[in-house]
Structures are given as structure tokens and as C-alpha cells.
């Protein structure tokens, strides 16, 4: 079975109040919306485990993604708090991307999802 990364710990504790099945469904829908889209999971899997990658490294690692789409997805993920962008004041400028602690905390959840899917077979 595939694992996202073996060195990632458990999920951080968060505060949520799910009093009803509808409330649980709404919160789950909000969480899934953060990672929905054609390329977001591919980007996450490239950055799991503390990997830091430059834009061109990500572009090479994800076949079929355009520069425009990669930039758009990274901006969205940065806005949502999953990805951090670090700009170094060099000539030419160097920009690196890594997951925030919150983004990295998705790893165990996706591992659980992979185990769930593998149990189907």
C-alpha cells in the first residue's frame, strides 16, 4: 500500500462541534473543497514529508500541468493556508514552496483514505 510519508505524526487537535449528521457533512464538504481540483493532490504528494520544491521542480514532477494552472493552484493553496511560498531576494529571484504545518497534517488523513480505499479490493 502507498503511504504519503512514514515520518508524519498524527493529526493536530482542533475544535469542532458536530451536533448533527448535517453539521458533520457540511464540515467534511468544506474540508474536501480545500483539496478538490485536478492538481491539488498531486502538488500535496510532491510536498509531503517536508520537501521544499521550486516552481520548476514541481512543474517537472507533475506531467501535464501547465505553468498557468500550477501557479493558480499554488496561489489558491497558499491562500487557504496549505502551502507556504518563500521568496529569496536574489537575482534572479528564487521562489520555493513547502507545506505549512497545517498542510502537512493532511498526510495522516490521506494515509487513512488510502487504507480505506485499499480495503475495498
Automatic annotation (TrEMBL):
Q: Which PROSITE patterns match?
A: HTH_HXLR (PS51118)
Q: Which InterPro entries match?
A: HTH_HxlR, WH-like_DNA-bd_sf, WH_DNA-bd_sf
Gene3D superfamilies xref list: Winged helix-like DNA-binding domain superfamily/Winged helix DNA-binding domain
Arranged from A to Z, the UniProt key words for this protein are: DNA-binding, Transcription, Transcription regulation
- Domain HTH hxlR-type per the UniProt entry, residue ranges: 20-121
Q: Name one GO molecular function term.
A: DNA binding
The name of this protein is Helix-turn-helix transcriptional regulator
